[in-house]
Write a structure and sequence with these properties.
about 15% strand; single chain; three-stranded antiparallel beta sheet
Length: about 190
């Protein structure tokens, strides 16, 4: 006849194994190696169809710090915006993008005087675009979506590690259980338990 503390030890053994499995699973699932993020911006085509939580971009002019998904500098945001400009409606439509698009085009530089004038115009245009983008950041017109994508390989590996840890924990607690039963009941009754 099994005594009450045998049942209690088994419940503790199974409960602790479930807790270790759940805790290990949560830790492994939240490991950043198991997922990646993708970002889309409010000026991207089909932004409304993209998945992910929408967040507002913010720019701190005093420290020149940008928080906008994967973009950390205002120039990165402007370059990304310029890359899709003309394909969507959105922020800074009135900004003079066409004047700065040829800033690296050697064919646009004719003579020395024209080149200086072109550089000056592109510089002014770039500042106008920069100011328009900052205004759009301040007004909340530029937003981004952040979507989390699980990576199959690392996720399966994490599940395997979690199952391995749970198995080792169960074996350890089962061994402790057997030792306690052996000490309490004597070695002759250990085979029946």
């Amino acid at each position: 006849m099994e005594q009450w503390w045998h049942g209690l030890l088994r419940v503790l053994m199974y409960a602790s194994t479930i807790i270790v499995t759940a805790f290990g699973g949560i830790l492994m699932a939240n490991d950043s190696a198991n997922y990646t993020y993708s970002y889309s911006y409010s000026f991207d085509p089909n932004y409304e169809l993209d998945e992910g939580a929408e967040q507002r971009c913010s720019y701190f002019e005093s420290s020149n710090t940008l928080y906008c998904g994967e973009l950390n500098r205002l120039n990165e945001l402007m370059d990304r915006y310029e890359a899709v400009k003309g394909t969507t409606r959105g922020a800074s439509d009135a900004a003079p993008w066409e004047k700065i698009q040829s800033r690296n085009d050697p064919a646009s530089h004719k003579a020395e005087a024209d080149q200086e004038k072109a550089v000056y115009e592109r510089f002014n245009a770039w500042n106008a675009v920069r100011q328009a983008v900052i205004e759009d950041l301040d007004s909340g017109r530029i937003r981004f979506r952040q979507a989390k994508h699980w990576k199959a390989g690392p996720l399966v590996e994490s599940i395997g590690i979690t199952v391995g840890i749970a198995t080792l924990w169960y074996a350890f607690t089962h061994m402790i259980y057997k030792v306690i039963v052996f000490i309490a009941s004597g070695h002759t009754r250990i085979r029946r338990v």
